[in-house]
Structures are given as C-alpha cells and as structure tokens.
Amino acid sequence: MIPKEKDKMSNNITHSLGIDMVGYSIEEKSTLGQLNIRFDVSDVFVSSVMEDVFGLDFEMLPNTLIKGDGKFALWLGPDERLVILPKDLIRIVEMNLERRLQGRHYSAVDLSSGLVILDIRGRDVRNIISKGCSIDLHQKYFNIGQCFQTLIDKINVVCFPLENDCIRVIVRRSYSKALIRWLEDASLEFV
C-alpha cells in the first residue's frame, strides 16, 4: 500500500489557489495571530491586568472592537474577547498573563494555527460578502469599530471593516479555501 501524501497547506492560502481576481483582492495576514480571552470582566484585578498586558480597554459594548498599538480586541460575548496581535507577541503575552494572574479565573487560548485572517478589499466588497451573509453590511449599519460573528455561505466567520472598502474576515483554516472560492464566484457579477 502506498502512503497517501498529506495535503500541505501553503503559508499563503490565496497564492496557493492561484486566484485571478479583478476588482478586488484577498490578502492573508499570516503575521497576525489570535488569542481567545475569557474572564469575568467584573473582576477589577483581572480586568486591570488584561488592560495593562494588552494596552486595550476590555470594557466594550456588544459587537464592537477596539484597536491600538497594532492590536485589535473584538467583543465575542459578555466574558469573551478575541485579540488579534502579531504572532511573535503571543507567547510573551501568555507568559505575562500566567505570571500575573496565577490562581485567578481566566483563560487565554492561542487560536493562531486554526484560524486564518483575510483582508478582502475592493469597491464592491460589501455587496460580494452580502450575497452569502444575512447581516446588513451597508455602511449605514455596519461601520468601522463594529464586528460580528455570522455565516458566509454556511461557513462560520468573524468579520469587521478596516475601511469602507476592506472587510477583515477570520475563518477556520480548514474552511478558508472554500470561502475564497465562494468569494471568487460571488464576485463575478461585479467584474
């Protein structure tokens, strides 16, 4: 029996698909990682340590994000935040939290190997994504500083606008190629 060769994921998913996109672009942000942070935001000590370590205020309104110093914190639930930061800082942040919050109730889970961050840019990006998403992406309702979890063509994603013509999408690595192929197909009417 001949062993089956493993499907090797390219470091750059969009390049590995060889997609020729007209009018919009998809860029994988491979230098960014994600930490899922859970803690009781009413615990003043833990909240202050989180704020100090990340340099971000974690008291947030639902479905909003804050950014600063190359980091983003997204509200995913009352006690849950997704922090996007450079991958080379993740281990340092984890060790800092372990040292300062020893014995406290919190979790910090590195999701970087399982998620992909894609910046989808173009004049019709909101219309393209809207074809497979039930959220109203019109600028009147979905502005910079807001985020949401939803489905795009039955694929779980977290999205937020970086600019009016750029939406950042966070998707599970195993679904990223399917999402990119769907986006390519959905964009055809806008070419």
Write up what this structure looks like.
The protein has 191 residues and is an alpha+beta fold. It is 26% helix and 34% strand. A hairpin with a 2-residue loop joins β4 (71-77) and β5 (80-86). α2 packs antiparallel against α3.
Q: What is the fold's blueprint, element by element?
A:
Layout: H1 13-17, E1 24-28, E2 32-39, H2 44-54, E3 65-68, E4 71-77, E5 80-86, H3 87-100, E6 106-110, E7 115-122, H4 125-130, E8 148-152, E9 155-163, E10 166-172, H5 173-186
Antiparallel strand pairs: 1-7, 2-5, 2-6, 3-4, 4-5, 7-10, 8-9, 9-10
Helix pairs in contact: 2-3
Please describe the structure with a list of short key phrases separated by commas or semicolons.
single chain, 191 residues, Alpha-Beta Plaits, Gyrase A, domain 2, 2 domains, 5-stranded antiparallel beta sheet, 10 strands, 26% helix, disordered N terminus
